[in-house]
Amino acid sequence: MQKQPTSYKELGLVNSRDLFAKAVKGGYAIPAYNFNNLEQLQAIIMACVETKSPVILQVSKGARNYANQTLLRNLARGAVEYAEELGTPIPIVLHLDHGDSFELCKDCIETGFSSVMIDGSHLSYEDNVALTCKVVEYAHQHDVTVEGELGVLAGVEDEVASETHTYTQPEEVEDFVTKTGVDSLAIAIGTSHGAYKFKPGEDPKIRLDILEEIEKRIPGFPIVLHGSSSVPQDLVATINEHGGKLKDAIGISEDQLREASKSAVCKINIDSDGRLAMTAAVRKVLDEKPEEFDPRKYLGPARDSLKELYKHKIINVLGSDGKA
Ligand code: G3H
Ligand code: 13P
Ligand code: ZN
């Protein structure tokens, strides 16, 4: 069956343009939380409604494959109504995370996404510019916003892998944003995907000096940080106390992220911390109550724990509370 084209506007979603402009001006960042199931989405929306925060719902290629794009789109539509039902309508962006081709971005744009990332960071500079331009041209015809990326993050995810960091070169950013027309730019300043961002003994710091240098070149331009989980050690401990084996998992300091949020960083991507919160809660229930076999009895506590984590980020790290 042919997919029916759907505009995000019909779903009650918004693109990221105004949200970013306000966030840059207001010195806060908007949470970009990944989701691929119902409990994650419920936790995100409850947390954002309770804190009155705008939100970016992120869908990776892996999430599309796992959860089915039609279901995800309708979950996002449901999220808009759910937020209203909970008492506070909040701006919701549906964003493609790490789009790796024009075709994928086009498909998302045509099926209800309000924002897409085209990640050409592994290509040569010229090829990254060319691919990003092509996506921007198509997306803007549909009033969909586009995130590009310059520099390579280290870390390993199902679909996003890189062995090494290549920090974003500040000299390139102005040329890149001018040539491509992107609406926001993801940069590499030492964050990375996954739960193992630094080796034991390493100084677990991100390069706020490079961020500052970039901001001087493109003042007020919306900047995005990927790989920004902090890997809360209490969650790692709970996982390990209940049968898990996560060794030397280290994340980004929340203090540094708070600092970055006050600058032109207006979108901060967090996925791994949510995975840790869910896993810790599920492991604890199943370990302590081995007789339990109703998924709601372990996914419910996982959802509660996720919601608290998301609220904590919004209030104490990103500063987006009250900005909906
Ligand atoms: O940037 C990567 C996100 O954490 C998504 O990961 O591809 O495993 O869904 P995933
Ligand atoms: P984390 O793995 O640090 O949560 O980063 C997620 C991310 O960047 C999604 O694009
Ligand atoms: Zn990412």
Automatic annotation (TrEMBL):
<feature type="binding site">
    <location>
        <position position="98"/>
    </location>
    <ligand>
        <name>Zn(2+) 1</name>
    </ligand>
</feature>
<dbReference type="GO" id="GO:0030388">
    <property type="term" value="P:fructose 1,6-bisphosphate metabolic process"/>
</dbReference>
<comment type="function">
    <text>Catalyzes the aldol condensation of dihydroxyacetone phosphate (DHAP or glycerone-phosphate) with glyceraldehyde 3-phosphate (G3P) to form fructose 1,6-bisphosphate (FBP) in gluconeogenesis and the reverse reaction in glycolysis.</text>
</comment>
<feature type="binding site">
    <location>
        <position position="149"/>
    </location>
    <ligand>
        <name>Zn(2+) 2</name>
    </ligand>
</feature>
<dbReference type="InterPro" id="IPR013785">
    <property type="entry name" value="Aldolase_TIM"/>
</dbReference>
<dbReference type="GO" id="GO:0004332">
    <property type="term" value="F:fructose-bisphosphate aldolase activity"/>
</dbReference>
<feature type="binding site">
    <location>
        <position position="119"/>
    </location>
    <ligand>
        <name>Zn(2+) 2</name>
    </ligand>
</feature>
<dbReference type="GO" id="GO:0006096">
    <property type="term" value="P:glycolytic process"/>
</dbReference>
<comment type="pathway">
    <text>Carbohydrate degradation; glycolysis; D-glyceraldehyde 3-phosphate and glycerone phosphate from D-glucose: step 4/4.</text>
</comment>
<feature type="binding site">
    <location>
        <position position="226"/>
    </location>
    <ligand>
        <name>Zn(2+) 1</name>
    </ligand>
</feature>
<protein>
    <recommendedName>
        <fullName>fructose-bisphosphate aldolase</fullName>
        <ecNumber>4.1.2.13</ecNumber>
    </recommendedName>
</protein>
<dbReference type="GO" id="GO:0008270">
    <property type="term" value="F:zinc ion binding"/>
</dbReference>
<feature type="active site" description="Proton donor">
    <location>
        <position position="97"/>
    </location>
</feature>
<dbReference type="Pfam" id="PF01116">
    <property type="entry name" value="F_bP_aldolase"/>
</dbReference>
<keyword id="KW-0324">Glycolysis</keyword>
<keyword id="KW-0479">Metal-binding</keyword>
<keyword id="KW-0456">Lyase</keyword>
<comment type="similarity">
    <text>Belongs to the class II fructose-bisphosphate aldolase family.</text>
</comment>
<dbReference type="InterPro" id="IPR000771">
    <property type="entry name" value="FBA_II"/>
</dbReference>
<dbReference type="InterPro" id="IPR011289">
    <property type="entry name" value="Fruc_bis_ald_class-2"/>
</dbReference>
<keyword id="KW-0862">Zinc</keyword>
<dbReference type="InterPro" id="IPR050246">
    <property type="entry name" value="Class_II_FBP_aldolase"/>
</dbReference>
<feature type="binding site">
    <location>
        <position position="193"/>
    </location>
    <ligand>
        <name>Zn(2+) 1</name>
    </ligand>
</feature>
